[in-house]
Give the backbone structure.
Amino acid sequence: MRLQFAFGAAATALSAAIISASSGAAGEDPAKTIPTFSKDVAPIFYKNCTGCHRPGEIAPMSLLTYDKARPYAKEIRNKVVAGVMPPWHADKAHGKFANERGLTEQEKAVIQRWANNGAPQGDPKDLPPAPKYTDGWTLGQPDAVVSMPIDYKVPADGFVEYEYFEIPTNFTEDKWVQSVEVRPGARDVVHHVIVTMRPPKPEARPAGFKFAEGMDVPKKESGSSEPNQARGKGQSLFPPPQRLGAFIGGFAPGTSPFTFEPGSAVLIRAGSTIVLQMHYTPSGKETTDRTKIGFIFAKQPPEREMRLGALVNGQFKIPAGATDHVVKAEMTTSADVTLRSLLPHTHLRGKSWEYTATYPDGRTDVLLSVPKYDFNWQTEYIFAEPLKLPKGTTLRAVAHYDNSAGNKDNPDPSSDVAWGDQTWEEMMFTAFVYSLDGVPPGTVVRQQSTRGER
């Protein structure tokens, strides 16, 4: 429930309609139906909002107590009415998702009546127990924590090339990981973190997808230590290693920790090194960051090995002034695959996404539609029922971009835009989580996958 403070006539009108529709039956004493924070509103906030709206988290205010929530009652009402909070951007017409954020109509009505009747506290004795959170960790105390080896100083201005930090795990045995949580030390300058696991020796894993040709990321981007001549060279103290390893987790504004249901886990080999790809964005003052990663281990060996992949198209150019430029990416399953989630990512010009699957029998389904993509909320859309994609299924992603002056977030509508690491450039990137059907966890193959497969 992150709040922004801009309200319109549409929100006011909708608020009045909801209030009218949710008022009590004719003749009912309104005083008896006015919700209070203690009895009616706090349970809603505790269930839906305080994961973000509490001290030390991403939201700008705490909703754990009446004194902290009361000053924002009307803003909360307006954001709930407008559908901005809780944030959820998938079209309900396509797909069902286990992590969908939202309030019921009854919960919305309670908040409306509370805010429009003075936002009373009520009897503190009615207040339910506040949810318990582990300080600094969303998922509870990790079984193991690794952190950046230094305090990294982010400059006040300019820009920072991707930095890469290598952290030995010192694990003496293979670890099956149920959850991976990234905790930035300085959220205001950490744009994203990508976590990879590099085993002591390279190993070939079974391939699950064959990617369409012509989508590779351009050289001198995303991992290259060479500068892009068009933008110059930013601060760069920790260049990329020769080998990154397998993608196992990450962080971006609005994301949740990667966590998997019982029986499913990701693998970290004994003796592995964790590599952090850090993207920093200077905020106007020098800042120090020391990001850390928490791991919660599976209680027993998993039935399914979860794997993280990326569907990327780096070969595009968005013309200056274009209001609806389309970029596509495509991959085909090279084995029977179960798809768990999709996480779309563009930068400030991204406006919408759609994913479709075409099955071997010719059927086509829309798996996920995000008609109003929001760069501030990098949501992983977790399917309520993981999707079975038989061998030969083609998955297509289509992203739309607005590079015009009509896009208020556009850094420069006068310039063509291509793939680039920095926020003023663009990406067409989808992270996805999957498993290979019928393949035992930890399987290694003798030969490397063919080019274009992962």
